[in-house]
Amino acid sequence: MFASTYLQARDAFLKAVSIADARLETIAFPNGSTKNGDDLFVDIASIGSKSAPNVILCISGTHGVEGFAGSACQIDILERLIDEDFGSDLKLVLIHSINPFGFANGRRVNEDNIDLNRNFIDFSQPLPDNDRAIQAAANLMPINGTLEAYHKTEKYIQLLLDTNKIYQVASDLQPGQFQDEAGLFYGGREPSWSHETFRKLCSKYLSDAKNIVAIDYHTGLGETGVGELIFVSPHQREVTKKIESIFTGPLSIAGAEDSVSSEVTGPLISSIADEVPQSDVLAAALEFGTCPLQDVVWALVIENWATRYFSEGHPLLIDARAQLKKAFYCEGNEHWQRAIIGRSEQVFEEAKNYLMNNT
User: Which of 128, 243, 266, 267 sits between 20 and 30 A of 284, alpha carbons compared?
Assistant: First the structure.
């Protein structure tokens, strides 16, 4: 269930789809491959009536390397539903590896260094400005490709930790930026392939839905093994009351004081309501904590730095990608694995109960 590579994760997902007798659609990714030249795909599984009024949508791999956890949760859901009859009122849709390039190549971003979870903005309007994110990234990033610059950043992050400023820096970075194409949390200047593919899938699979619960799996923020359900809404008070009546904690609204996530510009789940305006949409990120925040920030910075200055196969780039994976995936940690599967199952059951009782 918990894979070591994208290909292993995809094979396990496809096997679970087959055993569950789910419908399957496969979309080939046209803009890249694995390091060994293997083709990449977005796979979509669905169970239940195609025209069901209630839909649970689960997405993995928005942030590439974070897809290992999301893929495992999706496989677990399929395994648990083998003998379950959804009837005509409920449909399950699982989008596996919406950012296949990042997942397969050990990156959090896509083939163009775009953070897919910052890419869902209205590109017909002027690009957002976020000087704080750009300045925070500039302060963190090594100034060149030398080990001296590397160690200087290492010391700077330790200083941020010692002075209790690491959380503010992370908060400054998280909203994203749209100016530095090679930088951290870059949202892009046009819709990416994954962006356009996701919108098409929403239109195709959700067009008959009256009620939708969407869960986008993420890792990296919060206490290790804890799954926080983070909703995105400008109407915090009204939404908080509703979600607290449906789900058990931990719950939050992105950007609220009690949330592990800052408010994000252009998150993927914000686009669902745009594609199906007739539907009542509850959309959230299910964020699983992995390691201390300073380790996450360090991994993000060093992987971006190594990608800028070194070619594929360079030892420093290989090491940086390994650090990134470790920061976002507790591979081999059975306690963590049990915790996130348990939380995923809890959220899924609560979503299902809400939708079935809301008919």
Answer: 128
Instruction: Evaluate if residue 344 carries a pLDDT over 70.
Output: yes
CA neighbours within 13 Å on the CB side: how many for 150? Answer: 15
Is the confidence at residue 86, as pLDDT, over 90?
no
- pLDDT score for 249: 86
Q: Where are the domains of the chain?
A: 6-123+192-290+329-357, 131-174+294-326
Q: Is the pLDDT of residue 337 over 70?
A: yes
How many residues belong to the chain?
359
Q: How far apart are CA 71 and CA 122, in angstroms?
A: 29
**Integer Cα distance of 136 and 150 in angstroms:** 16
Place of tokens 């060994």: 36
**Residues forming beta bridges with residue 346, ordered by sequence position:** none
User: If you write DSSP's letter for every residue of 192-232 in order, what string do you get?
Assistant: -HHHHHHHHHHHHHHTT-SEEEEEEEEEEEEEET-EEEEE-
C-alpha 278/C-alpha 73 separation (Å) is: 29
- Architecture of the domain whose range is 6-123+192-290+329-357: 3-Layer(aba) Sandwich (3.40)
pLDDT reported for residue 236: 59
Work out the average pLDDT over 215-224: 98
Residue type, 42: V
Give the sign of the dihedral formed by CA 220, CA 172, CA 285, CA 71: negative
* Residue whose tokens read 């093994």: 225
